[in-house]
Amino acid sequence: MAADLADVPSVALMTELLRRMKCADKPDRHLILIGPPGSGKGTQSPIIKDDYCLCHLATGDMLRAAVAAKTPLGVKAKEAMEMGALVSDDLVVGVIDEAINKPSCKKGFILDGFPRTVVQAEKLDDMLAKRGVKIDKVLNFAIDDAVLEERITGRWIHPSSGRSYHSKFAPPKVSGIDDVTGEPLIQRKDDTAQVLKSRLDSFHRQTEPVIDYYSKLGSVVNIHAENSPNEVTVEVQKALSS
């Protein structure tokens, strides 16, 4: 361990020490963020992570990390993916179980993208119960489908720079043209109305029952995700302070 620390740059070491000191008095929190694509979870999760000293657990990233590290669960996940099969719920919950042993998860975690079904929620709760913890809050980023469609289908990007525009909220000076280079803007494949409809149908069918499941447990707080990012941040902070 000492040899490993000797290789860590001083600035990084001090930054981590200061983070741990700041986090020492923070209450433990175990959170789930639920919402359809484009509802703003990705904007809010880094803010919540930093404010409450939590680790951010995205199941896709965790599975890839487990595969790369060749952990026993990672090996099983790789076998499933190479066969073109879905990674089982038990395997995903096992990867989460492994991940929350990390020091960065000492104060708790934010789960984003999981659970997507009630069965997954039940398996997650069973695993956490064995650790003597439970989900404290489920933040439901509620937004009307029509508002979401306007928000997402109006997005355009300049592919080489990553500059983003919105046909209504942040339009380019000339429609379809990047302000800086004069090159054409593109719309990502996932930002079309057809793709969004398919993803929303899946969300309503599979994931909305998860909201009902946690509502019965008194864990759900509805967030008005159609508001501006700053307004949503204030609402999230209020929800987590209670």
Automatic annotation (TrEMBL):
<keyword id="KW-0418">Kinase</keyword>
<dbReference type="InterPro" id="IPR000850">
    <property type="entry name" value="Adenylat/UMP-CMP_kin"/>
</dbReference>
<dbReference type="GO" id="GO:0005524">
    <property type="term" value="F:ATP binding"/>
</dbReference>
<dbReference type="GO" id="GO:0004017">
    <property type="term" value="F:AMP kinase activity"/>
</dbReference>
<dbReference type="Pfam" id="PF05191">
    <property type="entry name" value="ADK_lid"/>
</dbReference>
<dbReference type="InterPro" id="IPR027417">
    <property type="entry name" value="P-loop_NTPase"/>
</dbReference>
<feature type="domain" description="Adenylate kinase active site lid">
    <location>
        <begin position="155"/>
        <end position="190"/>
    </location>
</feature>
<comment type="similarity">
    <text>Belongs to the adenylate kinase family.</text>
</comment>
<dbReference type="Pfam" id="PF00406">
    <property type="entry name" value="ADK"/>
</dbReference>
<keyword id="KW-0547">Nucleotide-binding</keyword>
<dbReference type="GO" id="GO:0005739">
    <property type="term" value="C:mitochondrion"/>
</dbReference>
<dbReference type="InterPro" id="IPR033690">
    <property type="entry name" value="Adenylat_kinase_CS"/>
</dbReference>
<dbReference type="InterPro" id="IPR007862">
    <property type="entry name" value="Adenylate_kinase_lid-dom"/>
</dbReference>
<dbReference type="GO" id="GO:0005737">
    <property type="term" value="C:cytoplasm"/>
</dbReference>
<keyword id="KW-0808">Transferase</keyword>
<dbReference type="InterPro" id="IPR006259">
    <property type="entry name" value="Adenyl_kin_sub"/>
</dbReference>
<protein>
    <recommendedName>
        <fullName>adenylate kinase</fullName>
        <ecNumber>2.7.4.3</ecNumber>
    </recommendedName>
</protein>
<comment type="function">
    <text>Catalyzes the reversible transfer of the terminal phosphate group between ATP and AMP. Plays an important role in cellular energy homeostasis and in adenine nucleotide metabolism.</text>
</comment>
